[in-house]
User: Which sequence fits this backbone?
């Protein structure tokens, strides 16, 4: 199984937006659900949002109404649109298919 690849992280001011992408191989994209996790320094990794093969979504309470997870089947890519970002959203964000993790992308929210 090929590791999914995240991109789109960076530095943004509070209230700003970023869109993360998770590109996957056909072998895992079409079979498994996809979840986005994040891990802040000194904290445990936590589930942020998930999307099933059929497109059903779920979100952590801390990001509901601000983050949107979606997928493009043709591009085999899952997106995490993050709006109204807060400093507490600062973390390394990972996507995961089954037991296959990406390498992570850093998101820093700071003025």
Assistant:
């Amino acid at each position: 199984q090929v590791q999914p690849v995240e991109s789109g992280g960076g530095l943004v001011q509070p209230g700003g937006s970023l869109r993360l992408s998770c590109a996957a191989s056909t072998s895992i994209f079409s079979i498994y659900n996809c979840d986005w996790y994040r891990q802040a320094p000194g904290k445990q990794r936590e589930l942020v949002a998930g999307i099933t093969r059929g497109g059903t979504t779920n979100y952590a309470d801390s990001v509901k109404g601000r983050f949107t997870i979606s997928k493009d089947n043709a591009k085999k890519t899952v997106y995490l649109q993050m709006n109204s970002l807060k400093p507490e959203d600062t973390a390394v964000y990972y996507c995961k298919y089954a037991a296959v993790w990406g390498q992570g992308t850093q998101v820093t929210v700071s003025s």
Q: What stands out?
A: The chain has one helix and eleven strands. The CA atoms of residues 38 and 93 lie 4 Å apart. The longest helix spans residues 26-29.
